Amino acid sequence: MSSRTKIVVLRMKEIIYTAIFIGLGILLITLLFIMFGPGKDTSETASAPAAAYVPGVYSASIVLGSQNVDVEVAVDENYIQSITYVPLSDSVETMYPLMQPALDQLAEQICATQSLENLTYAEQSQYTSRALLQAIEMAIGKAKVEE
User: Fold this and answer.
1) Which of the listed residues 12, 92, 122, 134 has the most CB atoms within 10 Å of its CB?
2) The pTM of the whole model exceeds 0.70
């Protein structure tokens, strides 16, 4: 009986490469199972905050002398997007030069903080800013969701 003995020579480099590829394969399969496996079904409506505003553009008026100036507030479901004037007439802009800078300053702060509290304004435009803030509050009050 002649028995033929086979000797298999494995190089260490091949064993290491094979072990690395097997490890990467197991890691990939584990990640895929974690990402797409069962138990990952979470509802977006349960985690999403309730809508604070009804999306749209809301306006409020300020009476300056004999003219009305409309302030528009654009909101989406959760955020105040922008605050602008409805086209400001040249006569109002000439008579009240601090209107546009005061509104720009307030709008920037309100959109950044999403709040009407703790706002700062320049001392020379404090009365203008307060009147604008009242109009903005009225417009945002129209936009709020009633619970």
Assistant:
1) 92
2) no
Q: Pairing between strand 80-85 and 67-75?
A: antiparallel
Q: Does one domain contain both 104 and 63?
A: yes
3-state secondary structure of 98: coil
What is the spatial distance between Cα 32 and Cα 11, in angstroms, rounded to a whole number? 32
Placement of tokens 């903080």 in the chain: 113
In a domain, 51, yes or no: no
* Residues 34 and 63 both lie in one domain: no
User: What is the spatial distance between Cα 92 and Cα 67, in angstroms, rounded to a whole number?
Assistant: 8
One DSSP character per residue, 58-88 reads EEEEEEETTEEEEEEEEE-SS-EEEEEES--
Whether 68 and 136 map to the same domain: the answer is: yes
**Look-up of token digits 């298999």:** 8
